Amino acid sequence: MPIGRIGQPSDIGKAAVFLASDDSSFILGAEILADGGMTYLSK
Fold first, then answer.
1. What residue ranges do the domains of the chain occupy?
2. What is the mean pLDDT of residues 31-39?
3. Which of 32, 33, 34, 31 lies closest to 12 in space, CA to CA?
4. Contact, 34 vs 12, CB < 8 A?
5. Fewer beta carbons within 10 angstroms: which end of the chain, N or C?
6. Is the pLDDT of residue 34 over 60?
């Protein structure tokens, strides 16, 4: 379900910072969709 707002550059930046941090050390080979749920509208 889309979140109902336009994404901001900081939204993508937060995802990038997370992936570069130690908090993501257990993530391997995952696809991170940072599009506010818009991918699911096309299905």
1. 9-42
2. 83
3. 34
4. yes
5. C
6. yes
